[in-house]
Amino acid sequence: LNLFNWNMGDRYNGDGQVVVVGYGTSKRLKASAARAGNAPVMQEMAMAPAPAAIADDARLADTAVGNKAGGEETPTGEKEPATPSIRKNFQETAFFFPDLRTDKDGNITFQFTVPEALTKWNFQGLAHTKDLAFGYTSASIVTQKVLMVQPNTPRFVREGDKMQFTAKVSNLSDSQLIGQAHLELLDATTMQPVDGWFQNIFPLQHFTAQAGQSAVLSFPIQIPHGFQSALIYRVTAQAGNFSDGEENALPVLTNRMLVTESLPLPVRGDGKHDFTFDKLLHSDSSQTIIQHGLTVEYTSNPAWYAVQALPYLMEFPYECAEQVFNRYYANALATHITNATPGLKNIFDKWKITDTAALESNLAKNEELKSVLLQQTPWVLEAKNEAQQKKNIALLFDLQRMQKERKSTLNKLTAQQLPDGAFPWFTGMWKDRFLTQYIVAGIGHLQQLTGEKDPAATAMAMKAIDYLDKELDADYYRLLKAKANMKEQQIDQMQIHYLYARSFFDKPVPAAMKKSFDFYYAQQQKYWAKQSRYAQGMIALSQFKKNDQVTPAAILKSLKENAMNSKEMGMYWKDVTSGYNWYQAPVETQSLLIEAFQVAGKDAAAVADMKTWLLKNKQTNNWRTTKATADACYAMLLQGDNWLAASPEVNIQLGATPVKPAAQEAGTGYFKEKIAEKAVKPEMGNISVTVSNSKGQPSWGAVYWQYFEDLDKITAAATPLVLEKELFKEVNGDKGPVLTKISEGNELKVGDKVKVRIVLRADRQMEYIHLKDMRAACFEPTNVISASKWQGGLSYYESTRDASTDFFFSYLPKGTYVFEYTMFVTHQGKFSNGISTAQCMYAPEFSAHSSGLNVKVTE
Fold first, then answer.
1. Helix ranges (DSSP H) in 212-297
2. Beta carbons of 721 and 847 less than 8 angstroms apart
3. At residue 470, does pLDDT exceed 70?
4. Across 227-276, where does the E strand assignment appear?
5. Rounded to 5 degrees, what are φ and ψ at 210?
């Protein structure tokens, strides 16, 4: 600190106060250094200019000992009050370049502009020498005036709000001040007065402020409808020769909003399917609704979405064994699909040249139907990645490139295999038993699907099996050595996974290891009911290939009995949820069970039901891992009927109006048609969808109805997403906080604590959910820091904005979730509280919103 050498002593102010000098429109504000028992340090922090500089600065209106307005002198020698000074600069940081000046004694002074907010500031100073000796100082300063007017404005107001515009007049003098205050309202674009429009009928008020105390000003105003600009408020106060004023902008939000309501159209198989959009049917009952339009979209062959996911397998940038194998797997699978599906290349060419929207990310599609712009969400990068992935489809399905990539990746994989047959995760790391089994199973998948055996891949698998045989044998003898009870369960997921992977190959079991294999096969037969769904599927397949007819049949029967089944969602298992283990993966589990019902059960109906769930999962989720994508594509495209070969025909009728798409996307059959606002009729709420030639696969679409409505007149709407919002007044009672529900007729008071409760229900797993909770202008949230949060097993990001609180969920499992946060009531009047909306950004047809509500605040 000696480096600063700012020994002010008592030259400026003996009581520890320093004068902050401002430039331009800023005024001199008395800045009190917070001593906190550290006077010498504070005095060394010379923030004021030299006394001569103070005297010469004619632009400063006040002095260090007071802030008299200093009006013009009259012929009688008295001073008339000057026009109140108006503070306008409310920057949160006093930024300046350190223009330091030294005197003959080495004392340093500098000057800078302080923003005009009446507040407490933190000052920090750091200095260092050429040899890196340094000094640091900090201080707190308060900028204030003898007479201060401080408006208490909300963050925003809405059209139709009635409120008391309040301000505080503070008197820091040692005597009573009697004066008057004035409120002016102006249009920010024209700077013309709008007091009459805002019913500011009492713009001038008198006040009396005792010495060292404050007085409250209250101006009743009403926000008019149709005001399409920001509002400038200007509050001034004057008492004798003291004055102050503040001018700032106040956003005026519309009380009407564009509401997007959707009706999903889930269809499965051929036939006519009827839907009812109730709110559209009865839309003529509202006198304030203004139609904006109706949009119909439909995908007749969504199996192609699985094809669009394939390039992800070849794109992953890392050179670990698992992803090198999946690049090989993707190219081999793509080659087979190309040969098995005539006309495939023509569809890819259309996606690349004409139907370019097919290659957009689902996150980026239908932006006009989503409640939040993609640029304002945390998922911009995911959208870009998925879009690039889809654009690589044509590259993936180039036959010459596929042959080259297959050979290249197989060579890389061969080089990564260790001499004993095991694979490490990355070259140079230790052997990984599970990864080795995963690669063996993948090679078996390809051989089973294509009927072809690549000699290099087969040799690789055989070498890996030799290593894995020894590992299984070692497991058995470890049990014997530990004197384990061999009649109890001694098998786990690792041994089950290996027996499944080995079942794809005819390689005989070494005679010396037959006892080990027989033991684990017997363990599978006896203890399959205690295993995970994933393991049960593997056991059914490996036992079936061992000519065991009883165990697979029992497993498949049990799986059916425990499954959920619906016409829309197909067949799935409620207890299959995501976890930290490799076998706790819903997409991979569903894919493997499809294989079990196809190979071991020959159950075409069950396979179709399960493929339906897999497609419906793709509708609302992004298959984000190479393993999930590989397994899902394997099950989706090449088990049961070939849905890619289907050419479904779809006819949609809105009331008496048929939907005639101008064009349909190649492959997926996707189309989107818009109906202008003038053509929208309530009868269009009666919707019929007729499908033919679907081969039993599901298809889906949605009708989006968009309209303008007053916030307080909006009624709740739900899809598979359901959203409820309630407000509660929180009061501390004898036994703790007591919550009282706030309804339309209830009244609040300034200072009341209010709790927001939002209940979100989802009937299926979804990704990329945005929830926006609007709030009234009279509420101020207690939590203003945006942050990632964790609640009830759910991770999300909460962002507090001026007019709403936003929640972002990258992953939302099926279930019911409750979110709460608190606010305080800050203003008196009647306010529109808005609504809450939730929407799946990946599939915007899944959306919901709450009803509107007005809140009333009394004295």
1. 278-281
2. yes
3. yes
4. 231-239, 242-250, 252-253, 256-268, 271-276
5. -70, 165
